[in-house]
Amino acid sequence: MSGLAELGVWAREHLPLAIKSPPEGAVLTPLTGDAGFRHYFRLDTSPSLIAVIAPPQQENNPAFVTKGAALSRAGVHVPKVHAVDYERGFMLLEDLGDDLFLPLLDSQSVADLYTAAEQTLALIQATAADPAIFPPYNEQLLLEEMNLFPEWFVGGLLGVEMDDKERRMLGETFAALAASALAQPQVVVHRDYHSRNLLQLSSGDVGVIDFQDAVVGAFSYDLVSLLKDCYICWPSELVRERALAFLREAWHRHSGGSAAVEDRQLLAWFDLMGLQRHIKVLGIFARLWLRDGKPRYLDDLPLVLRYTLEVTQRYTEFSPFHQWFDERLMPAIVTQPWYRA
Known about the structure:
CATH topology of the largest domain: Aminoglycoside 3'-phosphotransferase, Chain: A, domain 2
Largest sheet: 5 strands, antiparallel
Number of domains: 2
CATH superfamily of the largest domain: Aminoglycoside phosphotransferase (APH), C-terminal lobe
Strand order of the largest sheet: 1-2-3-5-4
């Protein structure tokens, strides 16, 4: 029996009592997947459910369940887990629907949708930071993420070989970004909080998915994922205004009674956290193509490049990185089939 057939049998055997199945039996319809190794299928029950194959060799399903439960206790609307088979990597989840933020966002809807997303983000940040559930977003993890950039983007995708001097410069850049992240208030961080992982629900709630990599880290991280989204771009003034409004309130909630912090510092934390994230994402999107054969993420590289260079141009301490990027990488980047100015 194939994995899909096994999933179908297992899902039908584990339907909750309140769920009604069609007389001929529930049918699995495949849904678009994500950047991981998970595969999703909708069951045409009433109400519908989502069946998941998440190979335990690649996916941390216990983390998905325990982190989801912690977020749910904090008031975040994550998919309810109806059944799980850790050995085979099967899950049966609440269906949050298809109304992802990304296709709903435009200049008229952005204010309401982002206000709702920021209110939900405040709930995520208020989640109990249990170290048994949420590991620390420590220096080692921050650096490991950024090192995906020289491996997969610089070397793998562009074919640029770096010398020792260039590697030292990158190491100094990465260390400064990690230090900035660790200097901020530390809260529960979703780690991929953007328009493809948020859904508008009929209840008025924001549905939140793809949270299995949540950690305890910088309070600006999820906000920069939302406002400097790798899949949609907003005017810099809108980003600045929303970032400052949220971070001012979040600072008061999470600073432990520390003195007020200047707006300039809040924005610097926000920008440098974005730089860390976007350097990492350049590596991840390159890896998704080179290792996993997923070319669609290449189309999103130009926006991530824009975010990266806007920050390195603005902050003088990153001038060496900016100059190196311009002189050594851009000549290779502009020849890429995915490149757009």
